[in-house]
Amino acid sequence: MNKKIAFIGAGSMAEAIISGIVKAEILDKEQIIVTNKQNQKRVEQLQQKYEIRSMMDKEKVAYEADIIILATKPHDLKNAVDSIKAYIKPTQLIISVIAGVSTDHISDLIESDSPVVRTMPNTSATIGHSATAISKGKFATDEHLQQAEELFQTIGTATIVDEIDMHTVTGISGSGPAYIYYLVEAMEKAAVEAGLDPDVARTLVIQTVVGAGEMLQHSGESASTLRDKITSPAGTTAAGIEALDQYNFEETIKQCVRSARARSIELGGE
Predict the structure, then answer these.
(1) What pTM value is reported for the model?
(2) Domain 176-269, what architecture?
(3) Architecture of domain 5-166
């Protein structure tokens, strides 16, 4: 990919994507520029860590870029766009990684017909394993969608969805890694409370989660089928599943996703 990419925003998601792109080596590091609202120390840290370019002159950042990635917090978006919209060219692709914000809203803020593509990656982008959903705005073409897909495939999988489904995607894959980490925390604590060495517990739990993920990806079988295969009647796994059912585990997870989705909708409205 022979494009200059500018990140407006230098938070954890921007860093995750930058890290993934750098590791994939699809761009020269000098083709990646990062800036943010006012924290020069933060952008300089990213510059030194990834050997990319940092710049606080947003006019120059916007002018030089072929692709502008909006990676601010939702409440900072308007100010960020206001600072660059006078310099945005119709040929530039605008990619948003901001939760809850529609492409129509971004187009309204930009006040132009610039192509906008909305994405929802997750922080596993850092190691090239993000599950990213992508949808295009009304001014974006299939070619723009393909550019975004090509970019985000370097940091994991990229799946095209209708924009109306993006709030649900946010609650599933956007926030999903945190749910898994929470599960791992609980399993580690249970193991340690039962007398297992913390390092041993961590090693076993992590590999269990990784192995389960690999089985889901490569076995071709559904989660319910895989679960049934290791759940013998009246066995140890059955006892554990019964406890999960007793504490309404399935409904808890569903409500977790619903709550994240609802918050995504709220952020869009704000």
Answers:
(1) 0.86
(2) Orthogonal Bundle (1.10)
(3) 3-Layer(aba) Sandwich (3.40)
